[in-house]
Amino acid sequence: xxxxxxxxxxxxxxxxxxxxxxxxxxxxxxxxxxxxxxxxxxxxxxxxxxxxxxxxxxxxxxxxxxxxxxxxxxxxxxxxxxxxxxxxxxxxxxxxxxxxxxxxxxxxxxxxxxxxxxxxxxxxxxxxxxxxxxxxxxxxxxxxxxxxxxxxxxxxxxxxxxxxxxxxxxxxxxxxxxxxxxxxxxxxxxxxxxxxxxxxxxxxxxxxxxxxxxxxxxxxxxxxxxxxxxxxxxxxxxxxxxxxxxxxxxxxxxxxxxxxxxxxxxxxxxxx
Length: 272
Description:
The protein is α/β, with parallel strands linked by helices. The chain has 2 domains: 3-107, CATH 3.30.1330.30; 113-269, 3-Layer(aba) Sandwich (Alpha/beta knot). Helix content is 38%, strand content 21%. It has 12 helices and 12 strands. The strands form 2 sheets. The protein has a 7-stranded parallel beta sheet, sandwiched between helices. Strands 1-4-3-5-2 form a 5-stranded mixed beta sheet, with helices on both faces. Helix 5 links the parallel strand 3 (58-63) and strand 4. Helix 7 (134-147) packs parallel to helix 12 (254-269).
């Protein structure tokens, strides 16, 4: 169905005081509400297409037809709750103006470790312990997608995976890569059970990251921006590793460090 014909069946929303719009804004701003309802807000056509391709269930769509390209997504909106919003209202509820006129509410996925199945015998994982900043979390997911790793595992979570800042900075990649949320203890048992070597990025008792072999089943573990890894992984990882610094500081941004480690593993794996 053409978008212009599809829009004839939509209710038009124009006021930020509308209960439906207030609910959308609250869901975008409040992590507790997202967790309670199992929903999240996603802005942008590219992000919408990634979410659909990754199997997320669309609940509600808000479209601004003057901004939205009708060629590709009108069929995907059929049989879902959709509202047209005026240009003025869209400008108030959209975080950025270049998102092609669509904001959606999707259902969250289940991220339990017990429901994850290993895709092959030599998986590559990235473990994020207590990452605090949603922007960093999103940037890490973008790198994880670029490296096409098997899953991102979030332990002792602080930043919300479905925080709009995470989704924006990941360009939707927080939805394209399988993700797991669990405790450190449960993850350690999972690694032992499946013979997965874990490499903790830390300054203490560490080998140069270039000296290790990542061609087998492997997981890199990085910690929070302010404090790094907790004692648990420094003590229980298969090996502690460090990226040598040559400047005045002894560490780098966690998303940059994660990218370096992942692409070293990809480099090694591409040569055998």
